[in-house]
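Lab notebook, bench 4. Still working through the backlog of constructs that have no structural model yet. Next entry is a single chain of 287 residues. Request: give me the structure tokens for it.
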Amino acid sequence: MAKFHFKGLMCPTFTAFDKDKQVDYAVIDKYCCYLKTKGVNGVLVNGTTGEGTCLRLDERKRLAEEWLVACRKYGVTMMIQIGGCDVLSVFELAQHAEKIGVDCVLTLPDLFFKPKIEEDLVKYIKSIAQHCPTRPLYYYHIPSMSGVDLNMPRFYDLIEKEVPTFHGLKYTNGNMELGIQLIKEGRNIMLGADTILWGALHLGFDAAILTTLNICPDTIREIYEHYLNNNQKEGLQVQRKLNQYIIDILSKDTGEWVENMKNEFNRVNASLKVGPVRKPTIMCRRL
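Model written out:
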């Protein structure tokens, strides 16, 4: 079983589409290089930002393969999100992740037969883990979109006893009371909420997966470095600057998180375009 504990900043990548909304794989190498030069040492592929649930199975597999080649080339850690489709397809994506050797796997809960209690979720994750038995496995806790909002401390207690490869959570939730409880218990928790990075670092989070790393990586790194250097006033000021920027982005066009963030990425990057979102999709605003 591979061991894994990512610390620092990870970028959830956009999926690049051409004008006909077909996946543009040619962008990946340049995209990965761009992130590496900006100090980003990890990527999450096929997540919410990457519109993973809007992709065909063959597209998701090829994206995983192409991104893994680029990540190995530039020395970037790669996490792949495999949930958001029928359970047999989730198993197939888990097997594929195992076969190609990604660094770690992330999965959503079942989005139709939603687990009602923590034991249901453990059973579902355990069934997935059997298909990627050596890959570190994370659960994607994003209740605002998945509709699954179970007790994460209790879930964590249960799953650690059942799934040896379980490594932690991607925690995209504004409930910092539960977040603090998880951190205090020594859990491996990766923040997924851009607007509370400064506060979360002070609460003990040591890793974050943030969409805005695509658009303003220097700003995110500045917040992180102010935290490391204990520059309290400066770090808070930069976080407020980031939050206002996010508000400004979301006030444009539809106000949908992924579409507006993707449009902003295309606007600020003259030489690296990732195209439109693949509709139909409705993305909620991030906390």
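Notes after review: The mean pLDDT is 93. The first helix runs from residue 28 to 37. Flag for follow-up if needed.
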